[in-house]
Amino acid sequence: VLVGSAGLAQGNSIVLDEKVEKLRLDNHIQFFIDKSSALSFEDVSNSPHLFQSTQSRGLVFGYEKKPIWLKVILKNNTTDVKNWVLNIPAPFLEFVDFYQQHTTGWKEIKTGYYLPHNTRPRKY
């Protein structure tokens, strides 16, 4: 999953502000299925042409053995410090590598069903 700040990434962004408490991202996410299973984060993040819109299909992929890359661009317009949570309602995703863009570079968070609970940022 790639998530970037609108100031640092290209494309249409979803604006988060004080009025937003919960937001479904299904139709705002772009996806790419890596049929080679060989692409790195750098390969994918430097190739925006690989991604397709989910608007016609939603986020339903069935059982897929190949890596699925998701991309969404968010812009945080809140003035107070607010912790946003990205919730993927699929409890048995084996591995989820989350990349968030900051002004100093990308931060990676690893989670997923196959990782021990004590290594996950959230227990669910």
Q: What's the short story on this structure?
A:
This protein is mainly beta and 124 residues long. It has one helix at 41-45, and strands spanning 2-5, 14-16, 30-33, 52-53, 68-76, 96-102, 105-111. The chain is globular.
What is the element string, with H for helices and E for strands? EEEHEEEE
* Spatial shape: globular
The low-pLDDT segments are 4-10
The helix content, as a percent range, equals under 10%
Protein traits:
mainly beta; 1 helix; 7-stranded mixed β-sheet
Question: How would you describe what is shown here?
Answer:
Helices cover 4% and strands 29% of the residues. By secondary structure, the protein is mainly β. The protein is globular.
Write the layout of secondary structure elements.
Layout: E1 2-5, E2 14-16, E3 30-33, H1 41-45, E4 52-53, E5 68-76, E6 96-102, E7 105-111
Parallel strand pairs: 1-5, 1-6, 2-5
Antiparallel strand pairs: 3-4, 3-5, 6-7
